[in-house]
């Protein structure tokens, strides 16, 4: 792991003392237009200094939790599959079933090595994806391991019947017409209602939540690689996260922040705010 500065806000514990670990995967594979997601982990950490540790709605504070920031995984300059495999082995070194993790991306392919580690130890793992895009192309730009095909690779690890996709509002014809057990595009059902509907299937199982920042409307988060009009506002996304309060999240991530496309800085600030609410919702009660 590569030590980074500054750490995410309130991450003051030594790793050996922490119950919740943050870490970054600054991976960016094949991209056709707006690049820069590999800088996302550092940009989110820097922006976290702009927010408070306390959530008034939840009445919980990050300073009451045992949080550590491990820094970033080393991403070798290799082909995407080899680079992601190297990241996976680094995660294997520190992950334990009793610990909870938050990963800062990187493009959405960074989710894959995390899921490979967790699913190998948690055979009943469920995955909830909140995203503007399905990310289920078989390949893109001649590459099977890239942001547009990331969830196809994840569903080779966690089967589609345990994978839930919510909030999609764009994608290829094939992605929208291919039948998957739990595909809830925003074009047919609001994301909040979709999560309410699937909540009984998520409860009682280990859950991983992966959020692409582009699930938000570009007015809220312009700093991303593939902004898509018609998305959620930050409070709407946080309402969805708070619905999961009774679930058993074992990990989560937030990916695709590319601050170079947002001179205002609000994308990374929104991302750090969302991460605070995730941590406090999922683990703020000391479960």
Question: Explain this structure to me?
Answer:
There is one protein chain. It is built from eight helices and ten strands. The longest helix is centred in the last third of the chain and has 18 residues, at about 265-285. The mean pLDDT is about 95. An eight-stranded parallel sheet has the order 4-1-5-10-9-6-7-8, with helices on both faces. Helix 1 (about 40-50) crosses helix 8. With about 290 residues, it is α/β, with parallel strands linked by helices. It has one domain: Arginase, Chain A (3-Layer(aba) Sandwich), CATH 3.40.800. It has helices at about 40-50, 80-95, 110-120, 150-155, 175, 190-200, 235-245, 265-285, and strands at about 20-25, 55, 60, 65-70, 100-105, 125-130, 165, 185, 205-210, 250-255.
CATH topology: Arginase, Chain A
The backbone outline, from C-alpha atoms, is globular
CATH level 4 superfamily: Ureohydrolase domain
CATH architecture: 3-Layer(aba) Sandwich
SSE series: EHEEEHEHEHEHEHEHEH
Number of domains: 1
Amino-to-carboxy terminus distance = 27 Å
Class in CATH?
Answer: Alpha Beta
The tally of strands reads 10
Radius of gyration: 17 Å
The poorly predicted ranges are: none
- Please give the largest β-sheet: 8 strands, parallel
Strand neighbour order, sheet with most strands: 4-1-5-10-9-6-7-8
Strand % is 15-25%
- The pLDDT mean sits at 96
Helicity, in percent? 25-40%
Structural class: alpha/beta
Number of helices: 8
């Amino acid at each position: 792991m590569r030590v980074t500065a500054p750490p995410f806000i309130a991450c003051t514990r030594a790793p050996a003392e922490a119950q919740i670990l943050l870490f970054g995967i600054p991976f960016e594979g094949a991209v056709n237009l707006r690049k820069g997601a590999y800088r996302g982990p550092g940009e989110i950490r820097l922006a976290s200094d702009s927010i408070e540790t306390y959530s008034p709605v939840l009445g919980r504070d990050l300073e009451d939790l045992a949080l550590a920031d491990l820094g970033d995984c080393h991403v070798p300059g290799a082909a995407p599959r080899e680079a992601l495999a190297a990241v996976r082995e680094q995660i294997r070194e520190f992950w334990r079933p009793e610990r909870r993790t938050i990963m800062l991306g990187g493009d959405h392919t960074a989710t894959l090595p995390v899921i490979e580690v967790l699913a190998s130890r948690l055979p009943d793992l469920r995955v909830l994806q909140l995203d503007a895009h399905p990310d289920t192309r078989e390949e893109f730009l001649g590459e099977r391991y890239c942001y547009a095909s990331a969830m196809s690779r994840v569903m080779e690890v966690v089967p589609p019947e345990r994978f839930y996709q919510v909030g999609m509002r764009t994608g290829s014809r094939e992605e929208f017409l291919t039948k998957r057990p739990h595909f809830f595009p925003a074009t047919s059902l609001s994301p909040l209602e979709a999560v309410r509907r699937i909540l009984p299937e998520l409860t009682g199982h280990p859950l991983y939540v992966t959020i692409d920042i582009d699930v938000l409307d570009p007015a809220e988060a312009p700093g991303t690689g593939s902004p898509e009009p018609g998305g959620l506002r930050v409070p709407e996304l946080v309402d969805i996260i708070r619905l999961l309060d009774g679930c058993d999240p074992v990990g989560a991530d937030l990916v695709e922040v590319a601050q170079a496309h947002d001179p205002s800085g609000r994308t990374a600030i929104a991302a750090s705010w969302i991460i605070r609410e995730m941590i406090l919702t999922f683990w703020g009660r000391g479960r």
